[in-house]
Input
Amino acid sequence: MTQQISDDDLEKLVLETIKNINIESAAHSKPVYSLAGILALKKMTALRLLARAMNIASRSKLRKVELIDAIVAEMQQPDTLRTCLNSLHEIEWDFFQQVVAEKYLQTDKVYIDSYHLAQNIGLVQSFYYKGELYFVVSDEIKAAYNKLVKTNFPEERNYRDLLNNYAIAAVSLYGVISQEDFVELFNSQNPRKTSIDEMFPLLLQNIIFEAGYCFWDEYIVDDDFEEDDFKAVAAVVELRKGKPRYTPAKEEFLKYSDWNYYETTPQLITLKDYLAGLIYDEDEVEALLDEIHDMSAVGANMQEYYDLLDSAGIVFDNKKQTKYITQLIIDVQNNTRQWINYGHTPNELNSLGKNNLLPFPTGQTEHSRKIGRNEPCPCGSGKKYKKCCGR
Output
């Protein structure tokens, strides 16, 4: 019989794991506060990569001390430091701001994702000394950063992050949004206004770091559309003509900037409870529910759901069971926010008199022809079938 672990023991285990990862990544020495001292802890390979990113001349010919001196000088340049700080993800930027405000930050409770990149490029360094973990921003970086503060860099960086989060939320909820609609949406919810000319280059910088969205024609789109050369974008735009955009309040809208977020509806909960009676692994149930939600968001047909359930090893004993889960899935899809409905659910549009419910089957479904693995997925996602519902 498997012994269950208590919440307290689980928390201790997680914290111990986090600390061990941090210890492994730290310099095992007394903290140092000069940038030259921190860079001296790095291997020549890492220093040369950093020098290459900064386009330092004759880097391959410099000895370690000379290379460190060149990097120290370059990192204190306002434009270089601004570029380094802009390369950090939001969670890394938040952590940098915590550390830069102190002589050092002593904590065990921080994930390596909060500082891994910053440490690689010399902005932050962790130390493990006398059984404690310390995080340090060098004196030179602090001085250079304080000069950037006077130019309102933190406010500009936070503004760029907000634009990025709006772009992620928009493509997560809508799949496709015109640049004009994006600007209108952002300006309707924020005191600081933007424009296409301003937001375009700022978001373009994020795309370089695989933001999950990209530009196509006049639109901001989910970067999965790239797999079929953006052919499905036009289909989504065409199918939602005349439908109003669903625009929740700012707090709710920004929840969609987490790629894993979606609205947990009563219909999804009912389906989850039913699946939990068929599959005893909670993680498998959650994964299957995520798949069903994503398929609902792009308007999959019933046969695709049957194929998904079959791949999960779910077998129905009789027509009554099949009919029951079919109805559960219909209820889920008709209450899921869809790209082709500009974020509305089919039921919402039906109540507004803007759209009929999807012509979803209510009885047994005939098996459709076999879809080729490299054909566009019929769910409308823009992906190949083998990378979407055919997985």
In short: The mean pLDDT is 87.
